[in-house]
Design brief:
Layout (H helix, E strand, L loop, with lengths): L1 E5 L4 H12 L3 E6 L24 E5 L5 H7 L5 E4 L6 H18 L3 E3 L15 H16 L6 E2 L1 E3 L2 E2 L22 E2 L4 E4 L9 E4 L1 H11 L8 E3 L3 E3 L1 H12 L4 E4 L3 H13 L3 H14 L9 H6 L2 E3 H4 L8 H9 L8
Parallel strand pairs: 1-2, 1-4, 2-3, 4-5, 5-6, 7-12, 8-11, 10-14, 12-15
Antiparallel strand pairs: 9-10, 11-13
Helix pairs in contact: 1-5, 2-3, 3-4, 6-11, 7-8
Length: about 325
């Protein structure tokens, strides 16, 4: 099967790695720059752009060149996009161009640039989320799945953000701030009030990449494929972190939805993208937007399937084991 992957920074690098490693597919990287010669990245995830992946061909594309994009996709069965741009309009334009080129080129399957919490629960507070929502709205309204079998991959958050500079991934963007738990400083932001019992789904980017690569072998794709390694409340995560590190965590109060929204608006006014992202995380978490679990009716409909069930031989690294590997008494950072 010929597989095209657009965007090989972030989680795209992990999908690419496992698609090549499987030895079952002819893999093509769609890039706006030559990976061998150009180390400048146009997307949010620059650190994989300077790699050359042996076993994959690279096609340099221009999303404004419709004919060139269609030609790059000729003979491709499945196209996976992991492109994420700062600019909302640029992101939407590029991805709608990619979708339409897939249709013109006869591509059979498409995965839009998701790889986070379930879109059904996602808000639209920042441009990053609004772009994703607009792309999905276009697919829903204009692309029948019998013409292009599009599927959203849902993962929740990435465990890699609990290492220094997302070191365990090597390609995800370093946010520059801790997510819920600052494992190095042994501090956790614990929610209080009516939204305190939310669950957070987590998985390593590399394990998600493996699941996506394995999903290439499925005969058909549903509208949604989910995967997780750990699904827990923040107090449960704190208990697991204390057990993995052998140290107590100081617990501070997570900002309320109202407080975080005020910070988000201020960051938006100042044009601070990462500030907006930092502020929106406690909002999204407390509104249960990062839990990969779906309502029973959705599961029973067959529109959302769990990759953990489809590929039981894949054993994703859980939260406690991950922290023990990196932060435990004999972990990477103990040396």
């Amino acid at each position: 099967m010929r597989v095209a992957i657009a965007g090989v920074g972030g989680v795209g690098a992990h999908i690419l790695k496992h698609a090549i490693k499987s030895g079952r597919h002819e893999v093509v990287v769609l890039s706006r720059s030559n990976l061998e010669n150009d180390q400048n990245s146009i997307n949010l995830f620059p650190r994989a752009q300077d790699r050359h992946f042996e076993g994959a061909a690279t096609k340099v594309i221009d999303y404004s060149d419709e004919a060139g994009l269609v030609e790059a996709l000729r003979g491709v069965h499945t196209c996976i996009s992991a492109v994420n741009a700062y600019d909302e309009e640029e992101q939407v334009r590029s991805q709608l161009a990619l979708v339409n080129a897939c249709l013109s080129a006869g591509v059979r399957r498409f995965a839009p640039p998701e790889f986070e919490g379930p879109p059904a629960f996602r808000g639209s507070r920042i441009s990053f989320f609004r772009a994703k929502n607009r792309i999905l709205q276009y697919l829903e309204a204009n692309v029948p799945r019998e013409k292009l079998e599009w599927c959203v991959f849902v993962s929740g958050g990435f465990l890699d953000y609990f290492t220094r500079g997302v070191e365990s991934s090597g390609s995800l963007m370093d946010l520059g701030f801790p997510v819920v738990l600052d494992v190095e400083k042994k501090v956790a932001e614990v929610p209080a009030g009516p939204n305190a019992d939310f669950r957070f789904s987590l998985i390593r980017a590399d394990d998600l990449g493996l699941y996506v690569a394995r999903a290439l072998d499925l005969e058909t794709w549903p509208k949604e494929l989910r995967a997780f390694a750990t699904r827990a409340t923040v107090p449960e995560l704190v208990a697991l972190a204390e057990r993995a590190t052998g140290e107590k965590f100081e617990q501070t109060r997570m900002k309320s939805v109202k407080e975080a929204e005020a910070e988000r608006k201020e960051a938006e006014k100042n044009g601070d993208f990462l500030g907006q992202f930092k502020a929106v995380l406690p909002i999204s978490l407390q509104l249960n937007e990062w839990d990969s679990e779906m309502p029973r009716a959705v599961i029973e409909s067959g529109e959302s399937l769990l990759l953990n069930d489809l590929f039981p031989d894949v054993k994703p690294v859980d939260f406690e084991s991950f922290l023990r590997r990196w932060w435990g008494k004999e972990g990477v950072y103990s040396k």
